[in-house]
Amino acid sequence: MHFDEERRKSIAELGADDDLRRRALEWLTDVSRKKYSYHFDWLGRPIIQFPQDIVASQEIVWKTRPDLIIETGIARGGSLVLWASLLEMMGGEGRVLGIDIDIREHNRAAIEAHHLSRRISMLEGSSVDDGIAGKVREIASEYKRVMVVLDSMHTHEHVLKELQLYAPLVTVGCYLLVFDTIIEFLPDDYFPDRPWGRGNNPYTALQEYLKTCRRFELDREMEDKLLITVAPGGYLKCIGE
Ligand SMILES: C[S@@+](CC[C@H](N)C(=O)[O-])C[C@H]1O[C@@H](n2cnc3c(N)ncnc32)[C@H](O)[C@@H]1O
After folding, report:
1. Which of 45, 137, 155, 165 is least crowded, fewest Cβ atoms below 10 Å from its Cβ?
2. What is the span of the domain harbouring residue 159?
3. Residue 73 burial (CB count, 10 A)
4. Number of domains in the chain
């Protein structure tokens, strides 16, 4: 059997293995209690992601070659540097636009001092603010291949608004990544001190949004092969105008 075909088959088997999926979720649930996703850096900047999702990001960027990656939620800048590094390695002039309601001065300074900073722009303000969204739309209009990553506030209302504002900017063939959909699958009492939880999170927002928008197709194979991901249902390919 050809390598690609064999690989597709074993990925599908993995995705259909309910016991492995259950154990993967159990593992993810337990390590997240120890703040696992906060433990990694990307080229010197803390990134709040699972290594599996970082590898998936690399595959997606390589395959789809966006020339602009927009991300809501900067934190310490690791993910902006990740996108910039992938664009840098591919050559070309690809750029990254990050939006955060609170860009701490030391984080901004470290991102601006990074050797990949020439590819990165940042906007400070709420991602659901009309002024910010307008600026993002204006910038995006200058690019041909736009990818969008949502990783800011994880409540249903916020992510739904972000989807309404930013999903339309994704161009055909590129991806919309909605992180932390995993919240829907974690125990009820998992986030006692957060405004989000089961029934109120990026997953529920995405399901509501997808009822009204047919431009996106779930990349099922991605989550089947990752098994461990914070974005189940959140890897979406734009298939229509
Ligand atoms: C999970 S962190 C982002 C992690 C980052 N993408 C990474 O992988 O390293 C979430 C960020 O969203 C920001 N945030 C919260 N509410 C926001 C809002 N209304 N608009 C934009 N950003 C917001 C927070 O300030 C925080 O930095």
Report:
1. 137
2. 3-238
3. 21
4. 1
